Amino acid sequence: MEADELLVLVAGGDQKAFEELYGLVSGPVYGLVRRVVRDQAQSEEVTQEVLLELWRSAARFDPARGSALSWVLTLAHRRAVDRVRSARAAGEREQREALRAGLPAFDQVTEEVEAGLEREWVRRCLDRLTALQRQSVTLAYYDGYTYREVAERLSLPLGTVKTRMRDGLTRLRQCLGGVA
Fold it and tell me: Which of 28, 49, 114, 136 lies 20 to 30 Å (CA to CA) from residue 177?
């Protein structure tokens, strides 16, 4: 049976027809919703809502106005757009409330905490370097000097500075777990 015929049977309460219709339309509905909503969990939820709405409102389908699949996908698109708008509005409300209360946004606080933890982690790893390695790495990466400028500043041959840098960066990478 085609979707149009199945939808007419579903409108009459035929559960077997709904199972068959579900099999035909659930994939396209999920695909459309996923493209609009983007989040997998939200997309699954919206798809379930659409299919439940399909069962409840099948009697509203008018075959003279288009195909069953078009009607179902229209329901899905509207529901997905509603979900996106609702999520956006909720985010905007939270931002307005945070501004009104004079509090930083949640994401900003999280980023500041994470950055502080990362700085502390790097600081501990720098402390594990030899003094000469730490001095070379600090001049190059924190003060912005080139290897040649570090060599001039420390009155050392360029090769020595490169060796210190390589060894220091290798130890930092090991300490940071390969993140660096």
Answer: 136
The encoded tokens of residue 47 equal 């798809």
Closest CA to 76 of 102, 48, 108, 39: 48
Report how far residue 32's alpha carbon sits from residue 47's, in angstroms, rounded to the nearest whole number.
9
What does the pLDDT profile of the chain (180 residues) look like in tens digits? 899 999 999 999 999 999 999 999 999 999 999 999 999 999 999 999 999 999 999 999 998 999 999 999 999 999 999 999 999 999 888 888 877 777 665 666 677 777 778 888 888 888 999 998 989 988 888 888 899 999 999 999 999 999 999 999 999 888 887 554
Question: Among 71, 76, 69, which residue's Cα sits nearest to residue 3?
Answer: 69
Distance of CA 115 to the CA centre of its chain: 19
**Residue pair 39/28 in contact by the 8 Å Cβ criterion:** no
- Asked if 43 and 34 touch (Cβ cutoff 8 Å), the reply is yes
Q: How far apart are CA 149 and CA 158, in angstroms?
A: 9
Structure tokens that stand for 148 in this block: 């040649």
Q: Which residues have a Cβ under 8 Å from the Cβ of 121 and sit 6 or more positions away? A: 176
Using an 8 Å Cβ cutoff, are 84 and 36 in contact?
yes
